[in-house]
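Slide 14.
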Amino acid sequence: MKASRQAPLGVFDSGLGGLTVVRELRKALEHEDIIYLGDTARVPYGTRSAATVERYAIGCANHLVARGVKAIIVACNTVSAVALERLRVDLDLPVLGVIEPGARAAAAATRVFKVGVLATAGTTSSGAYGRAIAACSTRIETIGQAAPLLVPLAEEGWTTGQVPRLAARRYLEPLARAGVDVVILGCTHYPLLFDIIQQEARSMIGEHVAIIDSANAVASEVADFLASRDLRCNEGALGTTRLVVTDRPKSFSETASRFLGSPVGAAEAIDL
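Slide 15: predicted structure.
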């Protein structure tokens, strides 16, 4: 049965990082209703085993399906790396991830055919970005660097100052030595630290370095996909954003309002 254009989009991530994707979706798809699920009780996913991440992802996705969404955007690089195909097999609706759009943007940006990827340990060990970039061009070398400290820094709001600066520098050092000219932020939490990462990358690699935030590429591809399936809502009132979390709903909704740049309602607490 074909979904209704008026049905909401479902988006999920382990915490607040996926709001970077929601922010761009709101710009690209202003009439769409969005239900965002942040699994804040079990963040971060990046240090978990692939089997555990897959189990968490299935639980999040099934919850959104039960709410009648017309498509699911996995706003989590770790889930996109290890569980996307399982979700596509299990669910009877479109499931889109964040890795392929970011990989395509990076492949288009590199001039020296060397791309660095800052990501969680789970995403790095999966090799998902390397495969996605190789699908764009076999000439491009992909250098992955696990950056686990960046997720808790983003979650705690430590996005400026010496601590995140030193962490960013430590993780960028191997990429700078490898001679990359593009760095993908391979976790949707990392754009919260975009300014510091960009500053450090420019000082270590050069002003020419490109920092790829996948969220914009994801939003553009979601818009095109919905239009191609006649699922895009192009009229009516401006879309709403509904927040669902597994822990700390009050602080999450406050952070979401600041991050999205507009008021959002109170987050609903659920148990998965």
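Speaker note: The CA atoms of residues 84 and 198 lie 29 Å apart.
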